[in-house]
C-alpha cells in the first residue's frame, strides 16, 4: 500500500517500511507518530483501488516511529555585489526528523 502524505508543507510518497526525512517534528526517538494529512492512498496488487482526497482522504492515517532527530548537511549561501566590495558568506543546517512508516490505514469503501 502506498500513500501521499503532507507534513511540513511538503508532500512525500510513502510505503510501509520506508524511512522518510521530514521537517522537524517534536518527539522522542522511539515514540509513535500519526500523520493524518493523507492526500492519496493506493492499494497493492491487481485491481487495487486508489482513493484521492479533496484535499484529504477522510479517516486515512499513516502510523510511524521516530528513528532519528538530527540536522542535514550544511549549505553555504554566498552573496556578493561586483565592484562594490560587498561579500557575505553564511551557512544553514536544517533540522529534520526521520520517520519509519509502520502502517498505512485507509477506510474501506
Q: Keywords, please?
A:
109 residues, mainly beta, four-stranded antiparallel β-sheet, 10 strands, 0% helix, elongated
Description:
- By secondary structure, the chain is mostly beta strands.
- A hairpin with a 2-residue loop joins strand 1 (2-7) and strand 2 (10-15).
- It has no helices and ten strands.
- The chain is elongated.
- The protein has one domain (2-69, 97-105).
- The protein has strands spanning 2-7, 10-15, 19-23, 32-35, 38-42, 50-52, 61-71, 75-81, 86-92, 95-105.
- It has a four-stranded antiparallel sheet with strand order 2-1-5-6, with no helix packed on it. A four-stranded antiparallel sheet has the order 3-10-7-4, with no helix packed on it.
Main-sheet strand order equals 2-1-5-6
The average pLDDT value, as a whole number, equals 94
Structural class: mainly beta
Give the distance, in angstroms, between the N- and C-terminal Cα atoms. Answer: 15 Å
User: What does the main sheet amount to?
Assistant: 4 strands, antiparallel
Count of helical regions: 0
Please compute the radius of gyration using only Cα atoms: 19 Å
The low-pLDDT segments are none
How many structural domains in the coordinates?
Answer: 1
- The succession of helices and strands, N to C, reads EEEEEEEEEE
Topology, number of strands:
10
The proportion of strand residues reads: over 45%
Shape: elongated
The helix fraction, in percent, is under 10%
Amino acid at each position: 500500500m502506498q500513500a501521499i502524505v503532507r507534513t511540513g508543507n511538503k508532500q512525500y510518497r510513502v510505503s510501509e517500511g520506508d524511512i522518510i526525512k521530514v521537517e522537524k517534528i517534536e518527539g522522542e526517538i522511539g515514540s509513535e507518530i500519526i500523520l493524518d494529512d493523507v492526500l492519496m492512498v493506493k492499494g497493492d496488487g491487481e485491481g487495487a483501488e486508489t482513493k484521492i482526497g479533496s484535499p484529504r482522504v477522510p479517516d486515512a492515517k499513516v502510523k510511524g516511529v521516530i528513528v532519528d532527530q538530527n540536522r542535514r548537511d550544511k549549505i553555504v549561501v554566498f552573496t556578493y555585489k561586483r565592484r562594490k566590495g560587498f561579500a557575505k558568506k553564511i551557512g544553514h543546517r536544517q533540522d529534520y526528523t526521520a520517520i519509519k512508516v509502520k502502517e498505512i490505514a485507509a477506510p474501506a469503501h
